[in-house]
Design goal:
Layout: H1 2-15, H2 17-25, H3 41-54, E1 70-71, E2 86-87, H4 88-93, E3 99-106, E4 109-114, E5 117-123, E6 129-136
Parallel strand pairs: 1-2
Antiparallel strand pairs: 3-4, 4-5, 5-6
């Protein structure tokens, strides 16, 4: 049975190479994280989904309703890398998804910091992790 499943997986990868390539295209954003704060698995999954969606602009579903403003117009001049809105052009072209720092603010609230941005997550009553605050500011 295991040999059959392995053969089917190999046949799938050969028939649909784009599916295999897409998985390699989005590395784990926590791969280089060496902080001391343990990260709940649900938060890891939520942030990884946000990081993948950032390239396509579909980040609204990762946010607490009415908590974060999403903007579609590029920021101008020197303010391109700075803002408190989820700026879709910046997410697509300037956002760095690799996690550098994770800070536990309370049992259900965490900060996730990248080279370019800070995201505050809260675990909702349903157990889902959502962004409730966002900031673009490069680590200097």
């Amino acid at each position: 049975m295991r040999a059959l499943l392995t053969a089917l997986a190999l046949a799938w990868a050969l028939a649909f190479p784009a599916a295999s390539w897409a998985a390699e295209e989005a590395p784990d954003p926590f791969r280089g994280y060496d902080g001391k704060e343990p990260v709940p698995e649900g938060l890891r999954q939520a942030y990884a989904g946000f990081a993948r969606a950032a390239r396509d602009g579909g980040v609204e579903s990762f946010c607490l309703p009415h908590a974060v403003t999403v903007s579609r117009q590029p920021r101008q001049g020197n303010s391109k890398e700075y803002g408190q809105d989820l700026n879709l052009p910046f997410l697509r072209d300037g956002f760095s998804p690799a996690v550098r720092v994770v800070r536990k603010d309370s049992e259900d609230c965490y900060l996730v910091r990248t080279d370019t941005s800070a995201l505050w997550f809260v675990r909702t009553g349903s157990g889902a992790w959502k962004v409730y605050r966002y900031l673009d500011k490069p680590i200097e």
